[in-house]
Specification:
Strand content: 15-25%
Number of strands: 18
Bound molecules: flavin-adenine dinucleotide
Number of domains: 4
Radius of gyration: 23 Å
Strand order of the largest sheet: 15-12-14-13-17-18-16
Largest sheet: 7 strands, antiparallel
CATH architecture of the largest domain: 2-Layer Sandwich
Length: about 475
């Protein structure tokens, strides 16, 4: 047992001996660090500890376990549910120095990476061998593989490839007591009892620290076509999802929907992007299609879009004619600058529910919101191909987060929806976990946490209270 003085100096010295003086940031050096570019807040921590290897992570955890010291794992700090948030008494364990791509096997279509590797680096490395890593999301340039695993991240390709848990073949994790659990397999099939790997994926740093992973890669498409379509009704949005998926089997790679409010905000006076479509409609579909024959693929898509126009399923549409134009279309979906310019406060939401109920649900939340807070505004968009809806809500001057949360989350119970589709529960949605998970499910999660982290030092208070 490590003897601790009240100011924890003995522990900090022992940690410095493990990670080196450059591996532990405290005091003034720490003062300059933020808790992530998206939070805009300063990082609060007793120390930021930056191990370089699994062995160092294990030794850090052994010391913290012996000292009863809380540890908050952190990757790129782009999480949107408060999962990486910390207090001034916590050790924040950052994977920023564990950023090596250890191996790439183009024939096996696998990549072995350390947890701190940035998602975009994985994309770039895979592309060098004509391959792709399927997970893709707006924070790609900052988020890490470890964070993606811990949150079971989703993003824009889930419709075609599934979430992060589908992309992980092998995993190495350090447990709360510092023991290392290695399951670094590189095969797809492995039916040898409980899939322990999956237990850590989506556990938001509460059960173990991800240190390395074997990632599954796919053949990269020859090219990607991107279309933006103006659609008059929700029924047509649902029909078109089915229509394109059937007409382009296995090729529909993203199907995002922007409600008119989001489209207009992101192409309006606060945005640098001009509206590619002049026609005003309630819904805009942004769609990626993988093609394996440049001429034929584009011609087939053009023919499908023409048919949709003739039949009135869409009232306007554009097919991106260059990579720059593709990026511009996607900017309309992924750009958050306009809302940040226009509003001093935005509450973000990430939920899922059956498509059949989605349009009515959006209007009902909008109505409740603006009835109660007249100056409030709601912007809706999301990965609708996966039933995943996002809201950016300007709460008005009242700033009543609890009331707005309740308006968004409460109806999901009756609709069999989820209070978190992809961002996780963290701190922000803890109070609403019960709207999606039963008491017996939450109790089993608690029992698992107690068994794996009996002293509750690993990201305590996230997901649920013990
Ligand atoms: C602009 C923008 C767009 C986004 N789009 C999407 C999207 O489309 N889909 C989506 O799913 N998410 C999205 N996100 C949310 C975020 O990017 C993801 O949750 C991402 O997976 C977090 O990775 P990170 O490295 O930043 O993790 P962090 O934010 O650092 O941490 C997130 C959680 O994981 C834990 N954690 C981090 N690293 C480890 C580790 N090595 N071991 C154990 N636990 C760890 C933390 O304790 C915390 O609970 C978006 C965020 C932004 C800012």
């Amino acid at each position: 047992m490590l003897r601790m003085s009240a100011d924890r100096s003995e522990l900090l010295q022992a940690l410095a001996a493990v990670v080196g003086t450059a591996g532990i940031l405290r005091g003034d050096v720490l003062a300059g660090r933020s808790a992530g570019i998206w939070s805009g807040e300063a990082l609060r921590a007793l120390a930021l500890v930056r191990p370089r290897t699994t062995d160092e992570v294990a030794r850090v955890m052994q010391l913290c376990h012996a000292a009863g010291q809380v540890v908050v794992p952190a990757g790129g700090m782009t999480g949107l549910a408060g999962g990486h948030s910390s207090t001034a008494a916590d050790i924040v364990l950052s994977t920023e120095r564990m950023n090596r791509i250890e191996a790439m096997d183009a024939r096996a279509r696998t990549m072995v990476v350390e947890a701190g590797v940035i998602l975009q680096s994985v994309h770039e490395r895979a592309a060098q061998d004509g391959l792709m890593f399927a997970l893709d999301l707006g924070a790609r340039a900052s988020c890490t593989i470890g964070g993606n695993i811990a949150t079971n991240a989703g993003g824009v390709r889930v419709l075609r490839f599934g979430m992060m848990r589908e992309q992980v073949l092998g995993l190495e994790v350090v447990l709360a007591d510092g023991s290392v659990l290695s399951s670094m397999f590189d095969m797809l099939k492995n039916n040898t009892g409980y899939d322990l790997r999956q237990m850590f994926i989506g556990s938001e740093g509460t059960l173990g620290i991800v240190t390395r992973a074997v990632l599954r890669l796919h053949e990269a498409p020859l090219a990607t076509e991107t279309a933006l379509l103006a659609v008059p009704t929700w029924d047509q949005v649902m029909e078109l999802l089915r229509y394109f998926d059937a007409a382009l089997p296995g090729a529909l790679a993203a199907f995002e929907v922007l409600w008119r409010d989001h489209y207009e905000l992101n192409t309006g006076s606060c945005s640098e992007i001009d509206a590619p479509l002049e026609t005003e409609t309630p819904f805009y579909i942004l769609m990626d299609v993988f093609i394996s024959d440049i001429d034929q693929g584009r011609a087939q898509l053009e023919a499908l879009l023409t048919t949709c126009l003739e039949q009135g399923e869409i009232v306007d549409g554009a097919l991106a004619s260059s990579e720059t134009e593709r990026a511009r279309f996607w900017q309309i979906r992924e750009n958050f600058e306009p809302e940040q310019k226009k509003f001093d406060k935005i509450y973000g939401y990430d939920i899922s529910l059956p498509l059949e109920a989605m349009a009515d649900y959006v209007e009902s939340v909008r109505q409740q919101l603006t009835q109660r807070f007249v100056d409030a505004e709601l912007f809706a968009y999301g990965h609708i191909g996966d039933g995943n809806l996002h809201f950016s809500i300007y709460p008005g001057q009242a700033r009543d987060r609890a009331a707005v949360d309740e308006m968004v989350y409460f109806p999901l119970q009756a609709l069999h929806g989820s209070v978190s589709a992809e961002h996780g529960i963290g701190l922000e949605k803890k109070a609403y976990l019960k709207y999606t998970r039963s008491e017996s499910e939450i109790e089993l999660m608690r029992k698992t946490k107690r068994m794996m982290d009996p002293t509750n030092i690993l990201n305590p208070g996230k997901l649920f209270d013990l």
